[in-house]
Amino acid sequence: MSNPAQSAPPKIGFVSLGCPKATADTERMLTRLRAEGYVFAPDYASADVVIVNTCGFIDAAVEESLDAIGEALNENGRVIVTGCLGAREEVIREAHPQVLAVTGPAQEEAVLQAVHAELPPPSYAQGALIPVPAEGIRLTPKHYAWIKIAEGCNQSCSFCVIPQLRGKLVSRPLSDVISEGERLLEAGTQELLIVSQDTVAYGADLRYRTELMGANAMQTRITTLARELGERAQRYGAWVRLHYLYPYPMVDQLVELMADGLIAPYLDLPLQHGSPTVLRAMRRPADQENVLERIAKWRARVPDLTLRSTFIVGFPGERDEDFEQLLDFLEAAEIDRAGAFAYSPIEGAPANALANPVSEALKEERLAAFMDLQQQISAERLARRIGHIEQVVIDEVSAEGAIARSIHEAPEIDGVIHLPELDGVEVGERIKVRITNSDAHDLEGERIREMRT
Q: What is the pLDDT of residues 125-144, one digit of tens each?
């Protein structure tokens, strides 16, 4: 008579931290593990092994990751660590020497090998092999999904250590990405969210090589990928949204695809600052007048364009006049949605060696001033949408109503559209609403009932 404990498939617990790119990494690992017959535990107690996918971009993320590893060790005891912080194994081993294994980011094979060493794959006799959905295991709601198109980055921004953690740019084959998008659309996904460290650089490491897809020869470029995914998404009424766009000239071509309705009219451009002096110290493009001219042209071409960006205040050497230039740029650009954080040194970043660091008190003062101004700009931009009728997708439903987004809001990042007292809808459903109110972050709306003929 067989032992039930021996016949049960091995269970993996998973903790995923960090950005959407890390979420995409986690989804790929989960898909590989499920394909080998592992099942996933809902809590520490029932897991045979716990994998922690860490973040290590800033000090706060390092602390959060180390805390998560410690919690997993305390609650379970058998922990494998991967992700960005895994590239700094000595930091993890110093804090938690008892972890079973440490691997770097996007190292799926190494993670699987570590799992196999501690928890061998189930045999066919155990009956644990479970069919994997064609679209893979996803952590997001069914109606949207992250697609990671490349790993690493070729930029040398002085405040960043991503190239050290994740290496140089490595683009996925064009056909692989398009196939993943097709599988997701066929499975009912309504929004494809394209991510990488530097999305516009996609294909540069491959010298934009040409792939033969069916009877068509296609170059491995972000413009090709966006067009091909956009055309496929149109057949399903789905959206394609691009994230993390370095402001290369190629962005102009992406705006043309937005004007043609193939991809969402949404630019996620991490501009970082408005002072040419600070931007040069950051090793970023420093021609902000040109950026303002391009923004004006983009908005002329796509009047309903939404512009999102991120900025750093208190960078070493940032003078009062530099910060004023940043505020002036923010006002002139009328960024729809902007986030900012006060500069903090990151181990290994070249900016650590720069002279004239800004005091913590002044950093916080400038951050507050930046956010005050941005809230005013965001409030004004959102108020312009009052009275508009927009198609939205339902993200959440509760007794109080529903929370939705339009094509102008990215999930998990931007504000939302509140639909109070709305009932009779489901998550993932598309409806039309009239925008009735707004504040600095969110909108409010009411459902428009379409007449039936």
A: 444 456 788 888 999 999 99
